[in-house]
Write a structure and sequence with these properties.
about 475 residues; alpha+beta; Pnp Oxidase, Chain A; UbiD C-terminal domain-like; 10-stranded antiparallel β-sheet; 5-stranded mixed β-sheet; 22 strands; globular; carboxy-lyase activity; UbiD; UbiD family decarboxylase; UbiD_Rift_dom
């Protein structure tokens, strides 16, 4: 059988030169620890775990799928030979183009899929038949949903939404909680279904091309299905199998999938979990528990893992690249002149610390850019700091950014704080049992506009002269 579009197996074959196979690691902590050590390497490969402790050969877990420029560019179909800066450059303008084109690539329904090799009915469902890791020592259990795609729908329009949420195995493998983020489209859909019918349909894919991980974890505009959006990225319609239980789509290429329902009063204690902020988020608390009516899986399935944690983690690089391009595009689309670059830094999880550079053209320009950047749709959720710098600063270089902050700001006048903005229950600074607001600081680290012509000159050689000298003397600087 030919592999369907968005097959994880096809993706794995395509990254063979950046893939390492790990055999014999145990699902309980060891697999997660090996992945964590890998993320810290200068050029981290993807890892394919096999012969996992307590499980037979062929039951596999993939981590690090989008952790390099080449792998992320391949995922987004941007090319195979890009570096960090060129990935962001290639992404510029693409999200809006993909969103506009999504209507031209509606999903294609199919009647067969490889995951129909094994169909498990409700009473026999056991998610622990797969090597679901306990990723971190402080986790409240085994989390099958880290690289997943949770599909819900708007009960009024029928438009599906695909989100990536954490999912903890419950009831000895018979069910799983879904921690849909409040305010996100998936959580809104679930609430609407509860209000309308007292239950919400849901399907979940646990193994697929990481393009669905990328799209499920970023802000695809409301009213657009992530599966149609994926079709726009690919230039081809995504094949889906329609759930016979609730009518929602399942990607035909899925390795492991479930279908079923959520109910307002069906909950299990979930968490804590090592989250993307770098902390264990929240105390154990009840969360929506999915009634699984049917489980599907391929022979020898691959689970797509994307465990967060203290950055760098599994998808922090991907989020940095995506958010940097999206924030830049949104600022430009607002008609703001002079914005030259944006960067959502990886140590802030691609959300908490954003830097924007600007070619100042009028008094107040830099402050305008900072306040807009702090609340663009791509940056509004869980943002903490926005730093605006002049266009001589490389926004991706934290050393240069801190230098600008240290030498071009007066803290008394150049830091604005905005309160009661969109925060998250994952915020380690959020006091218990309080609404998830946060505040954010806009730091204007630009040369004061009125002093642009008189500010002290930067003590560095002309770049053209440095290139000339490097050509003559570069040999003495080689390792």
């Amino acid at each position: 059988m030919d592999e369907p579009l968005l097959s994880l197996r096809t993706f794995v074959e395509g990254i063979a030169d950046e893939l390492r196979t790990v055999e014999g690691a145990h699902w309980d902590l060891e697999l997660g620890a090996i992945a964590e050590l890998c993320y810290r390497q200068k050029r981290p490969p993807a890892l394919l775990f096999d012969r996992i402790g307590d499980y037979p050969q062929g039951m596999r877990v993939l981590t690090g799928s989008t952790g390099s420029a080449r792998r992320l560019a391949r995922t987004l179909r941007l090319g195979d030979d890009l570096d960090d800066a060129s990935v962001v450059a290639a992404l510029r303008g693409k999200p809006s183009q993909w969103a506009a084109a999504a209507k031209d690539f509606p999903v294609q329904e199919v009647s067969t899929a490889p995951f129909l090799q094994n169909v498990v009915e409700k009473d026999d469902v056991d998610l622990l038949a797969f090597p679901v890791p306990r990723w971190h020592g402080g986790d409240g259990g085994r989390f099958i949903g880290t690289g997943c795609l949770v599909v819900t729908s708007d009960p009024e329009t029928g438009v599906p939404n695909g989100g990536c949420y954490r999912m903890q195995v419950q009831n000895e493998g018979r069910s799983t909680t879904i921690a849909a983020v409040p305010g996100k489209h998936g959580a809104q859909n679930i609430a609407r279904w509860f209000a309308k019918e007292g239950r919400a349909p849901v399907t979940v894919s646990f193994g697929h091309d990481p393009l669905l991980l990328v799209l499920g974890g970023t802000e695809v505009p409301g009213g657009i299905s992530e599966l149609d959006y994926a079709g726009a990225v690919l230039g081809e319609r995504v094949p889906v199998f329609r759930s016979p239980e609730n009518g929602l789509p399942i990607p035909a290429a899925s390795e492991i999938a479930v279908e079923g329902w959520l109910y307002p009063d069906r909950r299990c204690v979930e968490g804590p979990f090592g989250e993307w902020t770098g902390y264990f988020a929240g105390s154990p608390r009840p969360n929506l528990d999915m009634e699984i009516t049917r489980l599907y899986h391929r022979d020898d399935p691959i689970l797509l893992g994307a465990p967060p944690g203290k950055p760098p983690h599994d998808y922090s690089y991907m989020r940095t690249m995506m958010k940097s391009a999206m924030i830049h595009d949104e600022l430009v689309s607002m008609g703001v002149p002079g914005v030259t670059a944006a960067w959502a830094h990886e140590p802030g999880g691609g959300r908490l610390f954003v830097v924007v550079s600007v070619d100042q053209r009028y008094a107040g320009h830099s402050r305008q850019v900072g306040h807009l950047a702090a609340n663009t749709p791509a940056a509004a959720y869980m943002n903490r700091y926005v730093v605006v710098v002049d266009d001589d600063i490389d926004v991706s270089d934290l050393g240069q950014v801190v230098w600008a902050m240290s030498t071009r700001t007066d803290p008394a006048v150049d830091i604005d704080v905005v309160g009661r903005t969109w925060g998250s229950k994952l915020d380690p600074m959020l006091p218990p049992d309080t609404p998830p607001y946060n505040s954010r600081a806009i730091i204007d680290a630009c040369i004061p506009y009125e002093r642009k012509d008189t500010f002290p000159r930067v003590a560095q050689s002309d770049p053209a002269y440095l290139r000339e000298v490097l050509g003559r003397w570069g040999h003495v600087l080689e390792d």
